[in-house]
Design a protein that fits this description.
Blueprint: E1 4-11, E2 17-24, E3 31-36, H1 49-63, E4 66-71, H2 84-100, E5 109-114, H3 116-127, E6 135-139, E7 147-149, E8 155-161, E9 166-168, E10 180-182, H4 184-193, E11 195-197, E12 202-208, H5 226-234
Parallel strand pairs: 3-4, 3-5, 5-6, 6-8, 7-11, 8-12
Antiparallel strand pairs: 1-2, 2-4, 9-10
Helix pairs in contact: 1-5, 2-3
Length: about 240
Amino acid sequence: MNVHQRTQWRGDPDGTRYRTRRSFPAGPANATVLLAGPGSVSVLDGEGRDDRLLGELTGQLVARGAQVLTCDMPVREPNSPSTEADQLARAGRLSHLLDAHQHVLVRPLVLVGFSLGGLALLHLLRSGRPARTDTVVLVGTVIEEDAFLTSRVPSLDLVYGGFDLVGYVADADDETLPPAVFAPDMYGQWSARHLVGRNSIEVRVRLLEGFGHTLQPCGKGPHGDAVSALTSLASSTK
């Protein structure tokens, strides 16, 4: 199935120019998916591993009849932890992306975010934008503090690669101690308990074995089809 695309230029309040893109099928769309990439993806035409995964996901979603909204993201310093400013900058562009496509919005509305993109989506949902979603899928997003979602979110999937280990400093005053390392089956449940909503939210934690952060193949052994698994989750409300 061919993916049709429309790309437009937008501007941040400070005048920075960036692109938004709507990918859509030939016929009428049957859903809208807002796709927020990880911190490693800053432009729509990147060529990294995460860019390819997002491109494949977009293609499969459009093949199922959805339209997919994406945009350029602010460049982030590689190998540095994300900051509140990083998350807010991305949340602002995602909010404007939704606003710019209200005239073509088709429900159900699905939000899919990877890592830093997932944290940016949480900023939106905490602020009540959009007012209502049909489902949310966050990939590789660790939630360390309580997040009260003002938006109406009936269901939310937290998806992690089975090899996506997270390390924390064991003692800030003793650099000789090794970090405390947690597997996703532990911190995934921890993240789920931090999600609170105005209405009841069905939060599900899903592990995809054989993958690392942002669902890149990792370790020995067979790997499943991460893109198809995400496509099914994002399409489950139809």
